[in-house]
Design a protein that fits this description.
Elements lengths: L1 H9 L20 H21 L3 E2 L5 H4 L9 E9 L4 E2 L4 E8 L4 E8 L11 E15 L5 E15 L1 H4 L3 E13 L2 E11 L3 E9 L5 E3 L5 E4 L2 E4 L14 E2 L4 E8 L8 E6 L1 E3 L9 E6 L1
Parallel strand pairs: 1-2, 5-7
Antiparallel strand pairs: 2-4, 2-6, 3-4, 4-5, 6-7, 8-9, 9-10, 10-15, 11-14, 11-17, 12-13, 12-16, 16-18
Helix pairs in contact: 1-2
Length: about 290
């Protein structure tokens, strides 16, 4: 444990480009002097802090950790984030740089775990449980000072975007289908999150011709408001394919702006077409109540 803490502080003084952009514009932090200082401090106090838990970081205190990490040395914390640098490994463990605020690419955190075979890659979303052991100070590309907490992890689990960034606050379980001439639209559920509303849709082609489904034609109707699709990047959410051959199906998520979680009813409006121009389709309209 002691060796791993030293490696966390001394071996992970890499690029801390964290404030607003990617790490490619940043410089190594304060060269050898910070490494030596961090290693010496950790060697002297690492074992004690690793074995003595002073408390747990509460959700409302989380942002304070990054302005004064050393004040929370010995505290347990749990958070979700995104790995933004290729993981470092040696025979003792795996070492990560993680944005603890992945949506805004902020709150740089150094994470180490005694598992050299941890299956994690740059760009993965992770759930981290651990103990704050130290602090690394560095500079971003603009010369600003960054205080990055050093976390000795007890568990690091790869999770998906929804778990890490956009958990559902409210869910409408729908599980209903509409069939027009063998063109089937199934609405599974609608999730309301803080930063988006997700509509889970499956389209099945039981006709003899190719059909088309364009998610950008979909609408979410709420009272007198009409919401359009709002495409989200880097979510890993599956998309509904546009062109579906006979006998095939496609399933995905259409994202809209976030709505009030207390919403009791809304309407999902979708449209479809076929290469058989003799067949006419009405809009697929789902009235949903919670």
């Amino acid at each position: 444990m002691k060796r791993l803490i030293i490696l966390l502080v001394a071996g992970l003084l890499m690029m801390l480009g964290a404030c607003s952009g990617e790490e490619t514009d940043s410089e190594p932090v304060n060269a050898e002097s910070d490494q030596d200082k961090g290693a010496e401090e950790s060697e002297a106090s690492g074992s004690e802090s690793a074995n003595f838990i002073k408390g747990t970081v509460k959700p409302e205190e989380f942002d304070k950790v990054f302005s004064a990490p050393k004040e929370y040395k010995g505290y347990e914390l749990s958070f979700t984030g995104r790995v933004f640098v290729k993981p470092e490994r040696d025979t003792d463990g795996t070492y990560l740089q993680v944005y603890a605020d992945p949506e805004n690419s902020e709150l740089n955190t150094i994470v180490g775990i005694e598992d050299p075979n941890l299956d994690v890659s740059n760009g993965d979303y992770v759930q981290v449980d651990g103990i704050i052991q130290d602090e690394i100070q560095g500079q971003n590309a603009f010369g600003g000072t960054i205080n990055a907490p050093v976390v000795q992890a007890t568990a690091v689990d790869v999770v998906d975007y929804v778990t890490a960034v956009s958990p559902a606050i409210e869910t409408f379980q729908v599980d209903k289908s509409q069939d027009q001439h063998g063109y089937v639209v199934h609405l599974n559920k609608i999730e309301i999150a803080e930063n988006m509303t997700r509509v889970y849709v499956k389209v099945t082609n039981n006709t003899d011709d190719e059909i088309s489904f364009y998610s950008f034609n979909s609408k979410l109707l709420l009272d007198n408001k009409q919401l359009e699709e709002e495409h989200q990047y880097d979510t890993g959410l599956p998309e509904v394919q546009s062109d579906i051959l006979p006998g095939m199906e496609t399933e995905g998520v259409i994202t809209f702006p976030s709505v009030d979680p207390s919403t009791e009813s809304l309407t999902f409006h979708a449209e479809g077409s076929s290469m058989n121009y003799e067949v006419e389709f009405e809009p697929f309209i789902f009235e949903i109540e919670n």
